[in-house]
Amino acid sequence: MGLLKQIASRVASMLGVLVVLTFAVYFIQRQLPSDPARVLAGRTASPEALAAAREQLGLDKPFLLEYFHYLGRLLHGDLGISVTSRNEVSSDIGTYLPATLELVVVAGVLALIGGLILGVIGARDGWLAGAVRFVSVAGASAPTFLVAILLLLVFYRDLGWLPAGGRGDALAASEPTGLRLIDNLVHLDGAALADTVNHLVLPALVLALSPAMAIGRVLRSSLRATMATDFVRSASAKGGSWPAVVWRHGLRNALGPALSIAGVQVSVMLGGSVIIEMLFSWPGLGNYLSDAIANSDLSAIAGVVIVLGFAYVLITFVVDTLQILIDPRLREPV
Amino acid sequence: MSDAVARIEKLVVQFDRSGTPFRALKGVSLDIAPGEIVALVGESGSGKTVLGNCLLGLVPGGHRTRITGRVEVGGTDMVGGPEKDKRRVRRNELGAVFQDPLTSLDPTMRVGKQVRERGATAQRALDALTECGVPEPGQRIRYWPHQLSGGLRQRVSIAGAITAADPGGVPSLIVADEPTTALDVRVQDQIIKLFARLRDDHGCSILLITHDLGVAAQIADRIVVMSEGEIREHGPTARVLREPQHAYTKKLLESRLDIAGPLPPASVVEAGEPVLTLSEVVKDFPAPHKRGEKRRVLHGVDVRLEAGESLVLVGESGCGKSTLLRIAAGLETPTGGRADVPPAAGRPQLIFQDARSSLTPWLSINSQLSERLAAAGVPRKDRPARVAELLGQVGLDARMAASRPRQLSGGQCQRAAIARALASSPGILLCDEPVSALDATLAAQVVDLLDDLRRSTGVSLLLVTHDLAVAKRIATRIAVMTDGRIVEEGPVEQIFASPAHPYTKQLLEASPSLAAVAS
User: Range of A281's domain?
Assistant: First the structure.
C-alpha cells in the first residue's frame, strides 16, 4: 500500500471518529434535563416563541433527524449560543482558542525537545545518565500545581523576573492569527514580543514538565534497546562514534514508541491546560470551559469538547503519519 | 609471525554479572596471518563472540568490564587504545558481518547508503554489491532491507564489510560472527564460497566464528577450538579434524550430526494404523500490505503418519513445513483439505524450537507437568510418581522437578518440554526444529532421546527440520518440502542413497559435512 493510500485510509477513519464523537456529545446533551429551545428563547418566552426556537434547532423531529440537523449546524460552524456570555459559542471559542493553542504548541515543542535531550543523554551509560534518570523520576512525580506555585514564588515574588499570570494584553497585537508570538513577529514589535515570551515561559514550562519526562523515559528505553541491536553493532564496527551512530541509526529506529507517547502526552496537555490556565490566569479555552461547567452552559461545554476532540483526532493522525514516514516497513511492500 | 594482521595476547575479559565477576575469556592468545581464514569454533558461552568483539574494539558491558592483555589490529591497540584510533582502524582495516541478516541492517536506511556508510562512493558501493553477488545492484541499492531475502541481506552486509573508508580499499581483516547460522543450507553454501573468493581476490584475512565444525571444514585454513573462555586446541583444519588432540574437540566431532553419519538402526515398524492423515491440505494467508490478496503457503499436501513411525519433513525456511505442523496440531485450520486424527491417537503434542520460551517461566517443572497430568485425568495422588517417571524418561534428575525454567540449561529445558508433552500419553509428538537452538553436543542427545522414546513407547513422531543430518539420525521416512509442496518422499535409506528430485540433491550437496576433509 502506498503512502497516499495509507494516509487516505487514516483520514477516512478520522472522519468516522469525529462522527461518533459528535453523536456522543449530542446524545448526552439530549439526555440532560435541560431544554436548549428554552435556553435560546429565554425564560419568559411565549409558547409560540418556544415552538419557533424548537423548530429552528430542529428539535421537533425524530432523534436521528435532530442529530443530522445538529451535524449540519456544526458543519456551518454553528455551535449554539452560550448562556453565560450570550455570544455564539463559535465566536467565544474563536476568542479563547488561540491563547490555549499558543500555550499548548509552545509547551508541546518544549516537551519534545526536553524529552529528546533527556532520552538521548539517559540512554548512555555513566553518571550523567544516572542524574538524568533521577531528574526524570523526580520531575514526573512532582504534582503540576505544586511546581507551578513554587516557580511563581521564586520567579515572580522573590526575583520579580516574570509576571504572575495573563498573556500580557497591554502591548500585544492580536492580528492576524491571534497567536501572539507570530503576531508580534509579523509586526516586528520587539517589546511586545519580549512581553509575550515573559508571560508564556512559566505556564508553558509547567505544562511541558511531566510530558517531557514521559517522552524522555520512553525514548531512553527504546533508544537503549535500539543501541543493543546488531545493526548498531554493525554501524559501530564501521567506525561510527556513539553520537554519530545515535544520529544516523539510533534515533530514527527508536522514535516510534516515543512518538506514540508524545501524541498521547500532547493530547493530555490539552486537557491539562485547564488547570494551568486557572493557575496562571491564562485567558484560554480551559478558563472558558471551567466557567461553562460552573454555569451548566451546555452549548459551550459541547463546543469545547468537540474542538478538543477534533484536536485529539488531528494529533493522532499526525503521529500515525509520522510513524509511516519514519518506518519504510509500514509503507513499502515486501 | 611478526607480520600478523591481528594479534591477541593473554587476553582476559571479565564481566560483572549483577555483582559477581564472570570471566568470558581466560587468557587467550591468537595471531591471524595476512590472507588467512581462521575458524573459531565453540559452543554457546565459549567466549568466541567476545573475542570477535575485542578484535573490533567493541567490548560490551560498560565501565565495569575489566580487560587485561593486548589486542592489536594493524599495530593499534583495540582494547586499551584511544577511541579515536580504534575508530580509524574500524573505518579502514576491519569489516564485520554478524549472524542475523534480518537484524544486522538498519530497517530505516536504504541498502546502498548502508554499504557506503564509511564514506565510499556510490560507484564503489555498486561494485561491492556486484562482487558479493547481489543481482541487479543498480536497483537494489534503492531498496529497503525488508524488501530483500535473508541471503541477499547477508550479501549486503558483506558488501558493507568489504567497503572500507579508504577509496577502493578492502579491510585487512573481516570478523564474521556466525554469518551463515540463520541462513538456509543452500544459501549458507553460497555465502561460504563468497568468503573464500573474497580472500582469494583481495588477500584479506577472515576470522570465521562458528559453532559448526562442518562450516569450518569447508573454508578454514586453521581451526581454533574454544570452550569456557579458553583455547582448547588449534592447528591446520585437516589435522584438527583428522587427529583431534584435545578431549573437547573429540567430543565435538563425535557428537556432531553429519549427513555422512550412520543411519539409525532399522526399527521394526509394522505398517500400522494411520494416526494422522493430512489430505490435500491447502493453506492461504493474507498477503502482507495487500488487503484482500492471499498468499498460498501449502498447495495440497498429503501426509500419512503411521503408528510408531518417525516421519521427518525437511525443507528450507518459508517452505510451509511449520504451517503444516501447526495444522496437524489443530492450531491452524486448513483453507482446503482435511486433517484427521483418530480419537484413539489422542491429541497430538507439540515441541518447539525455543524450549525455554515454551515453558511458563514462573511455574516449577513439577507444576507444569502436574497441570498436564491433571488435564489428562491422572488422580492427584498418582501425580508425583508420574512426574518422577516422566522426568526419568527424558533423562532429568527427579530433583529438578522443583526448578523453574530459568534455572535449567537449554538442553534441560527441551527435555522438560518433552516430558510435558508426554504427560498426556499422546499417540503423536509434533516437533518443530526441536534441536536447532541447541549446541551440537546437546542436539545429538535430544535427537537420540526422541528416538529412544519412540522405540520404547511407540509414540509416532512428525518432526520438522531444515537439517538433513538431524533427519538422517532419527527418521524412518523423510519427506522433502519446497514451496508448499512435498517433492520427494521415501524411506530414509532411499533418500540418502538415491535422491530422485533435483531439489533433494541440491540440499544434500549444500549440507556441510566433515566427510570430505576427515576421511
Answer: 90-327
How many structural domains are present in chain B? 3
Both B411 and B437 in one domain: the answer is no
Q: Same structural domain for residues A213 and A114? A: yes
In this complex, is the C-beta atom of A5 within 8 Å of any C-beta atom belonging to chain B? no
B92, B104, B146 ranked by CB distance to A231: nearest? B104
Among the listed residues B34, B90, B27, B26, the one whose alpha carbon sits nearest the alpha carbon of residue B58: B90
Query: Is B165 in Cβ contact with A230 (below 8 Å)?
Result: no
Do the strands B6-17 and B336-340 form a parallel or antiparallel pair, or are they unpaired? unpaired
| CATH number for B43 | 3.40.50.300
How long, in residues, is chain B?
519
Burial class (CB in 10 A: 0-12, 13-18, 19+), B266: exposed
ipTM value greater than 0.90: no
Do B319 and B430 reside in the same domain of the chain? Answer: yes
Its sign, for the CA torsion B87, B91, B93, B94, is: positive
A163-172 confidence digits (pLDDT tens): 877 777 655 6
Q: How close, in Å, is residue A110 to chain B by CA atoms?
A: 26
Q: Which residues constitute the domain of residue B324?
A: 275-348+426-510
Contacts of A253 in chain B (CB under 8 A): 106-108
Share of chain A above pLDDT 70, in %: 95
Question: Confidence band (pLDDT; 50, 70, 90) for B408?
Answer: confident
- Please tell me if residue A326 touches chain B, with a CB cutoff of 8 Å: yes
Q: Are the Cβ atoms of B63 and A125 closer than 8 angstroms? A: yes
- Placement of cell 570452550 in the chain: B227
Using the 3D structure, point to which of B193, B220, B255 is the last residue of a domain: B255
**Whether the predicted pLDDT of A286 surpasses 80:** yes
**In a shared domain, residues B332 and B380:** no
Q: Residues B498, B391: one domain?
A: no
Total domains present in chain A: 2
CA angle, A158 as apex, A153 and A159 as ends, to 5°? 115
Interface of B with A in 146-185 (CB under 8 A): 146-147, 157, 160, 165, 175
- End position of a domain, from candidates B372, B392, B424: B424
Q: Which residues of B touch A333 (CB under 8 A)?
A: 147, 288-290
- Using DSSP, state whether A54 is helix, strand or coil: helix
